[in-house]
Recover the amino acids of this structure.
């Protein structure tokens, strides 16, 4: 067992963990933040996507001890009922969810994908690597390709992300 301290959703949280505990299990089982879902537990579905130091990661593929002192943002840290994050509100407006299981990971990945575009990080479909990537349906589909939706709400998810990208900050 080792003591791990993380800044989770703007609050420092410390917990004693087995060194083999994934970040996902630390969040869900030890910190009771159950918004991030355990889908495949192999990094293939994206349901567990959270942001660590502003970068999206699959929390099932990383050990909690690797993130000592890091800032972690989960779906619970983006917004709350009555005060939704713009991406959460856009998902609701555009019906960017159906069963909802993948939605927390989709929303965290969407927020991070827009930050990547703003930072000029290219994707596999960015046409000109010297130019700032643009928010297009193709660009977003590529960036979101690691987040699977069994219900098939992909077009609605892209619509939600585009709306947020085009709204004034």
């Amino acid at each position: 067992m080792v003591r791990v301290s993380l800044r989770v959703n703007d609050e420092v949280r410390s917990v004693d963990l087995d060194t083999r505990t994934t970040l996902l299990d630390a969040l869900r089982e030890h910190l009771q933040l159950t918004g991030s879902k355990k889908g495949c537990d192999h990094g293939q579905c994206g349901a567990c996507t959270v942001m660590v130091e502003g970068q999206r990661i699959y929390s099932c593929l990383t050990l909690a001890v690797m993130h000592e002192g890091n800032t972690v943002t989960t779906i619970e840290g983006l917004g709350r009922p009555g005060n939704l994050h713009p991406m959460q509100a856009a998902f609701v407006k555009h019906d960017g969810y159906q069963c909802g299981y993948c939605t927390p990971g989709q929303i965290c990945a969407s927020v991070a994908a827009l930050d990547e575009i703003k930072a000029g990080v290219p994707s596999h479909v960015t046409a000109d690597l010297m130019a700032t990537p643009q928010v297009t349906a193709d660009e977003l589909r590529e960036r979101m390709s690691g987040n699977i939706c069994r219900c098939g709400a992909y077009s609605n998810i892209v619509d939600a992300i585009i709306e947020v990208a085009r709204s004034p900050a």
Remarks:
- The radius of gyration is 16 Å.
